[in-house]
Amino acid sequence: MTTTIDRTPARAVTGARPGRGFRATLSSSVGFTLDFYDMYVAVFVAPVIATLFFPSDNKALSLAGAFSTLAATLLMRPIGAAVMGSIADRFGRRRAMILALFGVGAVTCTIGALPVEASAGVIAPVLLLVLRLAQGMFVGGVFASTLTMAIETVRPRWRGLVSGIVGGGGTTVGSVLASLALFLALQAFPGNQFAAWGWRAMFFAGGLPVVLSLVLVVFLEESPMWDRDANKTRRPVREVLGAHRKLMLLNMPVVFGIATHFLLTLGFLPTYLQVVNHLPPVTVSGLLVVVNLLTLAFGPLVGHLSQLYGRKRVMIAVAVLNTIALPVLFHLLAGLNGPQALVPVAVVTVAMSCLSVGAFGPMPVFLNQRFPTAVRASGVALSINFSFALAGLVPTLVNAWSGGVANLTTFVMGALVIGGLATVGGLLAVPEPARDLD
Q1: Can you tell me whether residue 113 is helix, strand or coil?
Q2: How many whole angstroms separate alpha carbon 97 and alpha carbon 152?
Q3: What is the DSSP string of 118-136?
Q4: CA distance 353 to 294
Q5: CB within 10 Å: which end of the chain, N or C, has fewer?
Q6: What is the dihedral of CA 378, 379, 381, 382, to 10 degrees?
Q7: 26: number of Cβ within 10 Å
Q8: What InterPro entries does this protein map onto (predicted)?
C-alpha cells in the first residue's frame, strides 16, 4: 500500500496550543534520557558484571562477555522497532511511549535483582541475557515514539534545536545521571560492598526516571501530525520495508557511524579509563559527571546549526571532524596513566564527548525528514535500531579481537575510522528531502 501524503503545511498542524511543543520536548527528552541511563549504567558496571556473571582468567574475554549482553540488547532493537514503531504509527506516539517507558524501567529494575554466577551458576548469565533481549524490545519503542513526538509537535524553526535537545541532550543527561548514580553507589558501598549491592542499587535507581517520565506523558497531548494522518496505513512496517526500503538502507550507514563513535567514546570510556588509564571507579564516575555537564549544550548547538545551514552540510562537517579527531584523541588518551594525569585525561574526554554528542544533535530531525507521517515512527525506529544493532557489535569485537589491553587502543582507533567513513559515505549518498516534514 502506498501512503498518501497530505500536503498541508507543517506549520498548520504544529504548535497549536501554548506550551504543547515544550511539553512534548520535555517528555521526549526524559524518555530518551531513561534509555541512555540504562545503557550507561550497564556500561559503567561492565567490569563488575564481567567478574560476577562471566568470570575468566582473561580480563578481555570476561569484558567481552559483559559487552555481549549489551550487544544482545542492540540486536533485539530492530524487532522492538518493528513492533513498537507499528504501534506508534497505528495507535499514536503517546501510547507507544507509555508502553516503551514502562517496559524499559521494569527491566532495568529487574536486572538489579538477578543472582550472580557464583550462586546460580550458568543460569545467571542466561537470565541477564534474556532481560537484555527484552530491554532491546522496549528500547526500540523509545526510539520510535520519543524521536517522532517532539519533532512533529514543535514549530518548524525549532526542529533542529529540539532534535539536539532530545538526541544530544538525552544522551548527555543519561550519562550524567548514570555517572552520578555510580559515584553515589561507590560512596555508599565502598570496596567489596559495591560488587555485592552497589551495582544493584544503580539499576534500582532506574525506576525513578520512569515514574517522572510516565507522569509527564500522562499529561502529554498526541502529536498533531499523527492526529491528522492517523490510520492512513494499516501496515507501516511493511510499507517502510517496501516502498521506503532504499531510503532506509541509505540511512543505515549514516546512523551506524554515529552510533559506532558514540559507543566507542561515551559508551566505552568508563571501561577504557579504568582498564587502560588505571583510574579508580570513583574517580571515573566523578570525572564523567563533570565532563558531561560541560558538554551538555553541544548537542542542541549542533542541532540548531543544522537548522541554519542545512542538515547534510553540518552532519558531513561533524562526521569528517570526528573521523580525524577521535582516533587522535584516543591515541593521546592511551599515553595518560594514573591519577596524576587526571587533568589532561579530563581535557581529552571533554573533547571526545563534545564530538560524539554533537553528531547526535541533528540525527533525529534528519531521520524524521526522510519519511511521511503515516510511517515515520516505523521508518525512524528501524533506521536507527538496525544501525545500532550492527554498531553494538563493535565494542564486543574490539575487545575480543584485540586479545588484551595492549592492542585495545589500536583496534578502537581503526573502528572509529571505519565508522566515520560509513557516516560520510551515507550522507553523500542520501538525497535531500523535498521539504521539511509533510
Answers
A1: coil
A2: 14
A3: HHHTTHHHHHHHHHHHHHH
A4: 9
A5: N
A6: 100
A7: 17
A8: MFS, MFS_dom, MFS_trans_sf
Backbone angles phi, psi at 203, to 5 degrees: -70, -40
Alpha carbon 146 to chain centroid distance? Answer: 12
To which H or E segment does residue 212 belong? Answer: helix 207-218
CA within 13 Å, CB half, 176: 18
**Please, what are the domains in the chain?**
15-429 (1.20.1250.20)
Give whole-number Cα distances, 5 to 225, 228, 233, 375, in Å. Answer: 11, 11, 11, 10
Residue 169 DSSP class: I
Cell 560476577 maps to which residue? 52
The closest alpha carbon to 320, from 292, 349, 359, belongs to 359
- CA-to-CA separations, 101 to 3, 172, 189, 268, in angstroms, rounded: 29, 18, 28, 24
Half-sphere exposure of 79 (CA within 13 A, CB side): 10
Single-letter residue type at 139: V
Query: Each residue's pLDDT tens digit in the chain (438 positions)?
Result: 444 333 444 444 444 455 788 888 988 888 888 888 888 888 788 889 998 998 877 777 787 788 788 778 878 889 999 999 999 999 999 999 999 988 988 999 999 999 998 888 889 999 999 999 999 899 888 888 888 999 999 999 999 999 999 988 888 888 888 888 988 998 999 888 998 999 999 999 888 877 887 888 878 888 888 888 776 778 899 999 998 999 899 999 999 999 999 989 988 888 888 888 888 888 888 888 888 888 989 999 999 999 999 999 999 999 999 999 999 999 999 988 877 788 999 999 999 999 999 999 999 999 999 899 889 999 999 999 899 888 888 887 887 788 777 788 999 999 999 999 999 999 999 887 656 676
Grid cell locating 261: 563513535
The one-letter code for the residue type at 268 is F
Q: How many CA atoms lie within 13 A of 278 on its CB side?
A: 7
Q: What is the pTM of this model?
A: 0.85
CA distance 319 to 21: 29
Q: What is the DSSP string of 370-396?
A: TS-GGGHHHHHHHHHHHHHHHHTHHHH
Rounded to whole angstroms, the Cα distance separating 305 from 298 reads 11
C-alpha cell at 365: 530531525
